[in-house]
Design a protein that fits this description.
There is one protein chain. The chain starts with a helix and ends with a helix. 93% of the residues lie in helices and 0% in strands. The protein has one domain. The radius of gyration is 26 Å and the shape is rod-shaped. The protein is an all-alpha fold. Helix 1 packs antiparallel against helix 2 (60-116). The mean pLDDT is 90.
């Protein structure tokens, strides 16, 4: 026979798990958005500073040197930021799954026990 108390308990556990996962995902997306906004602001400021520097250069050689240095710096900064954002996305995935680890382990153990019996 159907047991309403067990169904209610399972429903509550499922909802708690979903809410924990949602909270983790929300927090991770906020961190990613903050990081992306900070990087964009920094990149824009660096770009403006570079334009100011390059507009005051008197020789082509100096402009070429300045541009080369800027491109190298911008590339390294981009790679570092992309790596950091990638790590944040990996943390997001881990955090989103974490609340489900215990229920999945419990269900797997129950399934194994049912098969063995």
């Amino acid at each position: 026979m159907f047991n309403f108390e067990d169904a209610n308990k399972q429903s509550k556990e499922s909802l708690d798990t979903i809410l924990k996962s949602y909270a983790s995902v929300t927090k991770a997306f906020q961190a990613i958005a903050t990081e992306a906004a900070d990087y964009s602001k920094k990149a824009f400021e660096n770009n403006v500073a570079h334009i100011e520097k390059i507009s005051s250069v008197k020789s082509i050689e100096a402009a070429f040197e300045l541009q080369t240095s800027y491109v190298k710096s911008a590339y390294e900064s981009y790679i570092a930021e992309a790596t950091k954002i990638g790590e944040l996305y990996a943390d997001l995935a881990k955090g989103a799954y974490k609340p489900y680890e215990a229920p999945v382990a419990k269900a797997t153990a129950a399934a194994k026990a049912a098969v063995a019996a």
